[in-house]
């Protein structure tokens, strides 16, 4: 039986499509492709590669974030469990347990009610733990570490202990410190820091914090407050300079007084207002016989705080 013209046309079209489908591919360049098809496939291939790369990057980010959180939770659980079961509740038992895991351990920091609750390390430089987790694994979240120049032993310690930690988006390490920025309520709820060294436990009272420049070219006078270099405050002139620079910049005014001879704890992390910048928190160690509680009723945000020179930074 002879096929009608329309049937023949449909048949030829089907055969042509079948041959093309067999020969061609929506992604792979094949012999016989037109210039337009080649360009389209090249663009598609590039888009697929970008999509795959982005997916791999995101997957790795999630993996590292999950790993950092899981490790922090595990260390916190171990530390608290050991202290809770110690015969006299001494934090030294917790230090001993952390030292078993990592001999670089020098202490444990906790801001109650926040994500800051993990061990602190120290080595002969400030680079070893920038991308190394407490357990030695590679992780861009790193580990909070004490400035290598600081002295922290059973018999001697620097006047100002400086701790560094990454400002992680997932709030691990020092990523949650940003909650203090110009936030009176957060300060009122969390005015103290507990830092347990391998030798003793101390409570520090937060009295100031601010965002600061890092490079001289970011300031109008070329002078940067190098807070991290004020480790020895035995010279009263150096101490006064340290406190004056902090006081004029602090975003908050508190009831916590400071005086020559006090010991300090400084927390430093990257900030996101401009690049590079730092957010720094300063706390004073509770004196012998002093109540560790802080009267926050009179605290207020400082309307006259010295801000970074934005006209220079964003010129």
In brief:
This protein has 315 residues and is α+β, with helices and mostly antiparallel strands. The protein has helices at residues 5-23, 35-85, 92-101, 184-189, 236-249, 310-313; strands at 105-110, 117-121, 145-146, 160-164, 192-197, 201-213, 252-253, 264-270, 277-285, 300-301.
Spell out the key features of this protein.
single chain, about 325 residues, alpha+beta, Sortase, Chain: A, eight-stranded mixed beta sheet, two-stranded antiparallel ribbon, 10 strands, elongated
3D architecture notes:
There is one protein chain. With 315 residues, the protein is an alpha+beta fold. The chain has a domain at 104-313: Sortase, Chain: A (Beta Barrel), CATH 2.40.260. Helices cover 33% and strands 18% of the residues. The protein is built from six helices and ten strands; from the N terminus they run αααββββαββαββββα. The strands form two sheets. It has an eight-stranded mixed beta sheet. It has a two-stranded antiparallel ribbon with strand order 7-10. The chain is elongated.
The structural class is alpha+beta
Rg (CA only): 29 Å
Strand order of the largest sheet: 2-1-5-6-9-8-4-3
| Total number of beta strands | 10
The count of helical stretches stands at 6
The level of helicity is 25-40%
Low-confidence stretches: none
Strand proportion, as a percent range, falls in 15-25%
End-to-end span in angstroms?
85 Å
- What does the main sheet amount to? 8 strands, mixed
How do the helices and strands follow one another from N- to C-terminus?
HHHEEEEHEEHEEEEH
Could you tell me the CATH topology label of the domain at 104-313: Sortase, Chain: A
Q: What is the CATH superfamily label of the domain at 104-313?
A: Sortase
Counting copies of identical and different chains, the oligomeric state is single chain
Q: Could you say what the CATH architecture of the domain at 104-313 is?
A: Beta Barrel
What's the CATH class label of the domain at 104-313?
Mainly Beta
Q: What is the averaged pLDDT score?
A: 89
